[in-house]
Structure formats: C-alpha cells, structure tokens
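--- STAGE predict ---
source: upstream dedup step, 1 unique chain passed
mode: sequence only
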Amino acid sequence: MIELGRSGGIYSMGSPRAEELIQKAKELQPVLRERAAQCKADKRVPDETVKDFQKAGFFKILQSEEYGGYSMDPQVFYSVVLELAKACMSSAWIFSVIGVHNWQLNLFDKQASKDVWGSDPATLISSSYAPMGGVTPVEGGFKLTGRWSFSSGCEHCDWVFVGAVVPTEEEPWNMLNYRTFLLPKEDYEIFQNWDVVGLEGTGSHDIVVMDKFVPEHRTHKMLEDMSGEKHASKPLCIDCHLCRYFPEQFALHL
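--- STAGE serialize ---
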C-alpha cells in the first residue's frame, strides 16, 4: 500500500520522498560550508557540489517521471533550495535556476526532451531569458544570433535556454511573439565575464550564439501555456498540476 504524505499525495510535502530529499539537503550543509571559499575564489560552484546534487536526486525533483524524475510538488523543490542556501547561497542559486529547467523542458515538444535526455537523463540546462537575440524564420525552424547575460551555472550544463522575439511582417517586435530557444553546447560559446561582489560563485557568464539553426520543436512560445491545457496530459502536469495552478504566473516568468 502506498503511503500518502500529509498534504495528500506521494508527490507532496510530508511524503517519504520529500522528507528524504530535504534531509539530504541538510546533511550537505557542512560540506557546502567547507567549499564556500573555493566556490567564491573560483567564481563557480565546484564540480563536486553539482555531483552531490545529482547523487542526492535534487535535479529530479521537478523532472518528468518519463525520464526518471520525481515530478514533485514545487514546494519540495523550494524547501531543498532553502536548506542549501543556509550553507552556500551560490550553490543554492545555481540549483534553483538549473533545477527548474527540468520542469520547463516538459512544456516543449516531446522531441526536445528526447534530444536533451535521450542518452542521459542527468543532462542539465542553463538559461538567459531576456529577449536579446536576433531571429530569422527559416524552413523548419529559426536562425538565431545574439548574446545573453547572467546564465548561472552554465559551465555545468550541456544545453541552454535563451530568449528572443520572433519577428513577423506585421510586427517586427512584439513580446507576444516571445519564445524560449533550446540549444546544445556545440551551438554556443560561454564568454566568461562574471566578476562581482555578491553571489560570486554562481558563474553567471554570457552566452554567445552566432547564426545557429534551432528547429521548431526546440522552441517554446509562452502564450501557448497561459491556460495550462496544452500540457494537461503530460506526466509532470498530471502529477503536480504546476501549470494549471499558476498558468499565468509561470508563463510570464518564462
């Protein structure tokens, strides 16, 4: 018999898995404190820390069960972030940013998930959502060029989400035509320019893309998710109902 959590579900706060994940975050606090100086000096979270997060299952919290994730309530995700932040703000920061991308990928066409996780479900994605790119519609997709700032944890990731507005003949620039574009690391460069006095270890460098093709299935138009109905049949949406509880807030955030 499956034991339900206090809030009424195996995916929720109070469930055995949620309690285990939060406990693992607490147990990592001492080692995160020990690595804090290294994190600050290197201007990036240590590779060992990201490996620890992977081993603990943290990146699975919002990932679809289809790819081995836990599809859990976002409150579980927030709680783990909070515990990590008590020990190292930079480490918690990149986890909170990168970790939520495993939820957003579920909003793309199914082929996008296969592209990223087909051979390795532990693959990570960084991001920079500001609409800084130039887009040219072409057959089957788009050509993309641009430079995006503040891509936290990008050195630990093999893919990136970047934002841009797709022009039309009637409206060369309209945020209603904003999309998120998904690119593999061979299609972009990381320009290392993160030199700050706060959150030094987040490694939030620039992403540079030069005339790269992005197929249609690797783009996500936020307005298609304003109601949440487009993805109501997908595994993660069934389990945590995230886009149906907060459709407008999450669509605007993305």
